[in-house]
């Protein structure tokens, strides 16, 4: 997969190294193990060798009802492929090496089951996840309704979502028979305090942008936490100075 840089953000880069672990637990390693970083046109392309063990996992969990296109979105992003046929998923995990905030890490994407038969697995995925993609089909209002208990479960386990990158995603926006308007999706996302995007895994519309935006949310969250930490340390220093006795 080609590397990318998102507009003015030059420190979030997708690379070509990926692995897959399916429900059988068998890992898949592609032929390429190189990382490619796209640089401005004036400069030449830079090629780096990256060892997977040098990276830290950043776990993204994809939720949604059966048939909304979760697997198609992930496969389109990781492998650049799309299949019309639908194969139900229990749980698949894909790994993609990226560069984020000038640090190499592994984007671990968990494609969860659309079935309600595995609540314990769902809770475990939430507890381990760093970011979440809540996917519905714009052709099915029911698929949007089924996200609400999942959202509530994330809030219950994770707490305040202002500190957790979450994307509400309306997939299959290439379809003509729309059952959920774009405005409805945007308003629900606003009430949930999360980002919103419509995508099409079939036409590759907004697929890269989805993961770019998710990483952007994480970048802003990390920077905010760093600023708060610095602020707290500064306040502690001032309190210590106030507590000291000064002899004139």
From TrEMBL:
<keyword id="KW-0636">Prenylation</keyword>
<dbReference type="InterPro" id="IPR005225">
    <property type="entry name" value="Small_GTP-bd"/>
</dbReference>
<comment type="similarity">
    <text>Belongs to the small GTPase superfamily. Di-Ras family.</text>
</comment>
<keyword id="KW-0342">GTP-binding</keyword>
<dbReference type="GO" id="GO:0007165">
    <property type="term" value="P:signal transduction"/>
</dbReference>
<keyword id="KW-0449">Lipoprotein</keyword>
<dbReference type="InterPro" id="IPR027417">
    <property type="entry name" value="P-loop_NTPase"/>
</dbReference>
<keyword id="KW-0472">Membrane</keyword>
<protein>
    <submittedName>
        <fullName>GTP-binding protein Di-Ras2</fullName>
    </submittedName>
</protein>
<dbReference type="InterPro" id="IPR020849">
    <property type="entry name" value="Small_GTPase_Ras-type"/>
</dbReference>
<dbReference type="GO" id="GO:0003924">
    <property type="term" value="F:GTPase activity"/>
</dbReference>
<dbReference type="GO" id="GO:0005525">
    <property type="term" value="F:GTP binding"/>
</dbReference>
<dbReference type="Pfam" id="PF00071">
    <property type="entry name" value="Ras"/>
</dbReference>
<keyword id="KW-0547">Nucleotide-binding</keyword>
<keyword id="KW-1003">Cell membrane</keyword>
<dbReference type="InterPro" id="IPR001806">
    <property type="entry name" value="Small_GTPase"/>
</dbReference>
<keyword id="KW-0488">Methylation</keyword>
<dbReference type="GO" id="GO:0005886">
    <property type="term" value="C:plasma membrane"/>
</dbReference>
């Amino acid at each position: 997969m080609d590397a990318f840089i998102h507009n003015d953000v030059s420190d979030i880069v997708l690379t070509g190294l990926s692995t897959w672990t399916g429900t059988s637990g068998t890992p898949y390693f592609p032929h390429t193990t190189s990382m490619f970083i796209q640089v401005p046109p004036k400069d030449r392309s830079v090629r780096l060798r990256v060892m997977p063990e040098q990276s830290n996992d950043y776990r993204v969990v994809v939720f949604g009802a059966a048939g909304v296109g979760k697997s198609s979105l992930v496969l389109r992003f990781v492998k650049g492929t799309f299949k019309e046929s639908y194969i139900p998923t229990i749980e698949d995990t894909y790994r993609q090496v990226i560069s984020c905030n000038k640090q190499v890490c592994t984007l671990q994407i968990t494609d969860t089951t659309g079935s309600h038969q595995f609540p314990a697995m769902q809770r475990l995925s939430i507890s381990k996840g760093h970011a979440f993609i809540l996917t519905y089909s714009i052709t099915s209002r029911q698929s949007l309704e089924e996200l609400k208990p999942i959202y509530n479960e994330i809030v219950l386990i994770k707490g305040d979502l202002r500190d957790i990158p979450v994307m509400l995603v309306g997939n299959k926006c290439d379809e003509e028979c729309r059952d959920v308007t774009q405005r409805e999706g945007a308003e629900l996302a606003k009430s949930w305090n999360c980002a919103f995007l419509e995508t099409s895994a079939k036409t590759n519309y907004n697929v890269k942008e989805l993961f770019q935006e998710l990483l952007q949310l994480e970048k802003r969250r990390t920077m905010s936490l760093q600023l708060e930490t610095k602020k707290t340390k500064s306040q502690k220093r001032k309190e210590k100075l106030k507590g000291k006795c000064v002899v004139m």
